[in-house]
Amino acid sequence: MNIGEAAARSGVPSKTIRYYESVGLIPPAHRTASGYRIYTEADVQTLRFVSRARGLGFSVADCANLLALWQDTARASADVKALARQQVDRIEAKVAELQSMKETLEDLMERCHGDARPDCPILSDLAGSASRCHVQETRKTA
Amino acid sequence: MNIGEAAARSGVPSKTIRYYESVGLIPPAHRTASGYRIYTEADVQTLRFVSRARGLGFSVADCANLLALWQDTARASADVKALARQQVDRIEAKVAELQSMKETLEDLMERCHGDARPDCPILSDLAGSASRCHVQETRKTA
DNA sequence: TCTTGACCTTCCGGTTACTAGAACCTCCAT
DNA sequence: ATGGAGGTTCTAGTAACCGGAAGGTCAAGA
Questions:
Q1: Strands, DSSP E only, in B35-133?
Q2: Whose CB among A37, A119, B14, B126 lies 3.0–4.6 Å from A29's, allowing a Cys bridge?
Q3: Which residue has the closest alpha carbon to D25 C1'?
Q4: CA A114/CA B77 separation, integer angstroms
Q5: b (16+ CB within 10 A) / e for B87-98
């Protein structure tokens, strides 16, 4: 099948398939005499695998590792689990950061009239009125 | 003061200050005869403002809006609050997406031995063993 | 005065994971 | 034969910077 059909079957856009090939996430596709890429059902499975992994937030680099483990029938499930744990950790860190931002914003919003008047605790806080600051220095850690 | 001192005082790296200027977030700095940028204490305040807003996850574009509101003494606090609310919404959406990924990953991890054996439900799931799928299609919405 | 070193300047490239579009080629059906 | 859909490569743009190169500037010490 050509790239369009592989895209339709896998849910991964043609452009993205070419991109994955270009960065080495998937091996170069075979070609017809005229240069068209050709894919097998197995290739489509691989694309679906990648698509699901990406959907869980794994980076393309992680996907490459996961693919390698998937294709290595002698893998240790511990290695897979370790990648998953790393990913959970990254997600948790990100969530914590976002929650912290959200709390700060909600605090500020609560104290803001939100009407036609110009005085606004949100701006005051951003300007450094040194009231409370939940977040502060969360940026570099992100 | 020169850019280095402004950076030290504001906590915004020199590179970033130049970047903010280049994208129009802050106005072009005045220059010495030899071309060095010069900053006032007020400029440092502006940089701190931007830094705090960025720390709450506002985009650079949003920061420009916030700055404009800050400098407009006739603003309506409602306008500021609206931006904050938007930001909270964006954060909540992102958090929901991440939580969903996390749940899926944790479910899979729970079912994975995580030892030397090769069989691994995480890989099986990614390969499409069609067990449960919490996330699915969360990607485009992100 | 000269030099050294720290600091400044601009500009280019890399980061992540794609997407849009241009210019051109190929395939199939009418 | 031709038209249109779909393939090919390549470049550039997205967000928000960071790193580094090449070269100019400034203040202090010898």
A1: 37-38
A2: A37
A3: B34
A4: 5
A5: bbebbeebbebb
Interface test with B, best of A9, A62, A120, A135 (most B CBs within 10 A): A120
What is the fold, at CATH topology level, of the domain defined by B3-60?
Multidrug-efflux Transporter Regulator; Chain: A; Domain 2 (1.10.1660)
Task: Spell A49-58 as b/e; 16+ CB within 10 A means b.
Answer: bbbbbbbbbb
What gap in Å lies between CA B49 and CA B54, rounded to an integer?
A: 9
CB A93 within 8 A of CB A142: yes
Query: Pairing mode, if any, of strands A30-31 and A37-38?
Result: antiparallel
Over residues A4-43, the pLDDT tens digits come to 999 999 999 999 999 999 999 999 999 999 999 999 999 9
Chain A residues 29-68 with CB within 8 Å of chain B: 45, 48-49, 52-57, 66
Token duo for residue A1 = 């099948």
Backbone angle region of B76, left / alpha / beta, with phi > 0 → left and psi within -120 to 50 → alpha: beta
Residue A104 CB neighbours (<10 A): 24
Where are chain A's structural domains?
3-71, 90-126
Tokens of B139: 């990607």
Tens digits of residue pLDDT in B1-51: 999 999 999 999 999 999 999 999 999 999 999 999 999 999 999 999 999
| Alpha carbon distances (Å) from A58 to A49, A62, A139, B13 | 11, 6, 21, 30
The CATH number of the structural domain formed by A3-71 is: 1.10.1660.10
Q: Using only C-alpha atoms, what is the Rg of chain A?
A: 23
Torsions phi, psi of B74, nearest 5?
Answer: -100, 15
Can you tell me whether residue A38 is helix, strand or coil? Answer: strand
